[in-house]
Amino acid sequence: MVDRMRFGFGKNWQSFSETALTQERITQARQAFRGLFAGIELHGRSFLDIGFGQGLSLVCAAEMGAEVLGIDIDPDNLDALQATARAMQSAQAPNTRIASILDRSFVTEYRAKGGFDVVHSWGVLHHTGDMAQAFDHACSLVADGGYLVCSIYNRHWSSGPWKAVKYAYNKSPAVLQRLLISVLYPVIFVAKWLVTGKNPKHKDRGMDFYHDVVDWVGGYPYEYASIQEIKDLVCPKGFECLRVQPARVPTGCNEFVFRKPRHLDANLDEP
Prior knowledge:
Number of domains: 2
CATH superfamily of the largest domain: Vaccinia Virus protein VP39
Helix content: 40-55%
Radius of gyration: 18 Å
Shape: globular
CATH topology of the largest domain: Rossmann fold
CATH architecture of the largest domain: 3-Layer(aba) Sandwich
Strand order of the largest sheet: 3-2-1-4-5-7-6
Number of strands: 7
Structural class: alpha/beta
Number of helices: 10
Order of helices and strands: HHEHEHEHEHEHHHHEE
């Protein structure tokens, strides 16, 4: 059952796009995106971004010649995307639709159209409230010979307590939410520096530490899985795992690139 309590990702991404998206971060985002898709041709390929957020990946895919569609459940992300597209000097904002990957009618509609050559979802499927169903639908939208590219929070002994923090944040009034961010910001900063040996403010993928902290503390619903659990979820649907980048911190995101070979006719459940 989908958890109806939900963090306002759109407001946070809107703030990021309007106040923190510098040209240096745009360059980082482009470099990271091209590295992620090294060896995968995007020009002329259909590309679905599930949970486009601030829109960096969606605009990068469009810049590389993909025929893009971004979906998100939060209308505030439309404003965030527009701000990102302006900052990246995009000729026009990519095609978008306010929709959920859990929406059976959406999945049925695009499966009937042949699906997508690339389905991309970065740090999103674990926030849907039903990660297993979200993966079922995402996998079913990958065309033969296509790719599923995603990142998912890693399972760790601290995942349960971290979920409790997120739940408490979303149950709290705004003034207590701001207090919780101010208290946890230095804690997360020191913890990340100790674990990685790097200044947490030196981000990659074009991100900003403050807005990431708000996301990490508030991001709810929240699920997580080990690398093997995600492989066990996706590979039986007819996919092979091409690449895995383990999380850099214990409760960070593991990053995956899966491919659905053309010669396999995956036995995917109808949505």
